[in-house]
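Summary of Year 1 activities. Much of the first year was spent building the evaluation harness for sequence design. The harness presents a backbone, in tokenized form, and records the residue chosen at every position. We chose the following record to illustrate the format because it has been used consistently in internal testing since the harness was completed.
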């Protein structure tokens, strides 16, 4: 069997690591793979099966044109043509699409190729972009226009991106282009996104839920000196981890909590940059972005609770990472975030209910009724190796 995986990035970021993990399991099962992505960033360690769809310059031009016109995936004609020649020569049995909205491939050409050659297709929806006119998520705006046709996009009006609101055109274009032969299976990491896909113009395709997974050999309880290092040995530590802090990830929630909770509590935010530090109160400990997973594991293991007040999300792996380190999770009831949380490992609070959030955190500190052992046991349901195996089984079924 031969499989081509297509994604924006490879071996980095959540989707790039998923792509690489699936590739590793494929190799163990004797499945030949091609890893196709935006452009080669590490030429020294490039593997023989890696293929760059575009170039940095082409992506830059594509992105600028998309920003100006709002037309996503409508450019990169020549680079897509060259890439599809390589795919044709490879003769794949299956094409597995991940994130394709990174200004690096022409969508009409890609889907036309799949239709023409009648190639079985797996498409993992890592967000909602595939069936909206623009948005990867729309919960913050409480928008349901994508059900019948996007227009006058509230996100465009709010962010001024793109410069021209072409969401009505893009929704129609996606509905036309994203129609593939019947031998297609959609995959979503959460039941929440599966339910949305079944309401969209992709509803005719079968949808399978394969949760995101984590590396349980890395994420596990580890002793460290985090509390001593930051002078909070006797504090009840509330941790937040994100790599793009803002309203969507609930930065304002942590700032509000820092005003309401007394000195017995300590908030720690990981993944901040200098801009975020300028707006965060001095009583919040901030830690810059790090690629050192061992240090992150020590932080997860040292704190009392992991708080994820995300307002838009699919199936966040940070929840799983915290559980694997023995730390209970408190999250908003948004997207797929609550799906990994049960009563014995965490608490789910309605979105933006700050009073309930404070009340539950105080109760958690007082009662200490969630055990680290239960959290670790829950995380075993999300062993990434098992999740990658589910993809291989899906390939074999197709």
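For this record, the design step produced the sequence shown next.
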């Amino acid at each position: 069997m031969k499989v081509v995986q297509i994604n924006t990035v490879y071996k980095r970021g959540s989707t790039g690591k998923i792509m690489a993990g699936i590739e590793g399991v494929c190799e163990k099962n004797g499945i030949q793979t091609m890893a196709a992505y935006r452009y080669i960033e590490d030429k020294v360690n490039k593997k023989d099966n890696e293929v760059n769809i575009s170039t940095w310059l082409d992506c830059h031009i594509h992105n600028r044109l998309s920003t100006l016109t709002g037309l996503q995936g409508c450019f990169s004609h020549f680079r897509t043509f060259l890439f599809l020649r390589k795919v044709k020569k490879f003769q794949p049995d299956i094409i597995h699409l991940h994130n394709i909205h990174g200004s690096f491939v022409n969508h009409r050409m890609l889907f036309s190729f799949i239709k023409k050659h009648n190639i079985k297709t797996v498409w993992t929806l890592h967000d909602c972009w595939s069936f909206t006119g623009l948005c990867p998520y729309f919960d913050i705006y409480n928008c349901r226009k994508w059900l019948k046709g996007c227009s006058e996009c509230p996100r465009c009006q709010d962010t001024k991106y793109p410069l021209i609101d072409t969401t009505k055109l893009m929704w129609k274009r996606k509905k036309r282009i994203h129609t593939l032969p019947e031998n297609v299976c959609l995959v979503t990491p959460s039941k929440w996104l599966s339910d949305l896909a079944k309401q969209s113009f992709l509803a005719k395709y079968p949808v399978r839920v394969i949760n995101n997974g984590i590396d349980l050999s890395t994420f596990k309880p580890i002793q460290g000196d985090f509390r001593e290092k930051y002078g909070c040995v006797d504090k009840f530590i509330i941790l937040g981890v994100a790599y793009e802090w803002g309203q969507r990830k609930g930065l304002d929630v942590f700032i509000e909590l820092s005003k309401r909770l007394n000195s017995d509590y300590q908030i720690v935010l990981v993944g901040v940059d200098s801009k975020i530090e300028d707006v965060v109160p001095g009583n919040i400990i901030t830690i810059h972005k790090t690629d050192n997973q061992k240090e992150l594991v020590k932080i997860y293991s040292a704190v009392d609770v992991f708080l994820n007040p995300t307002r838009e999300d699919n199936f966040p792996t940070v929840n799983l990472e915290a559980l694997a380190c023995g730390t209970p999770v408190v999250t908003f009831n948004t997207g797929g975030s609550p799906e990994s949380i049960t009563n014995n490992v965490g608490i789910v609070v309605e979105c933006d209910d700050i009073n309930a959030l404070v009340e539950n955190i105080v109760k958690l500190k007082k009662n200490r009724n969630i055990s680290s052992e239960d959290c670790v046991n829950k995380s075993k349901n999300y062993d990434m190796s098992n999740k990658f195996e589910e993809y291989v089984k899906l390939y074999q079924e197709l």
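Residues 13-28 form the longest helix (16 residues). Quantitative recovery figures across the full test set are reported in Table 2.
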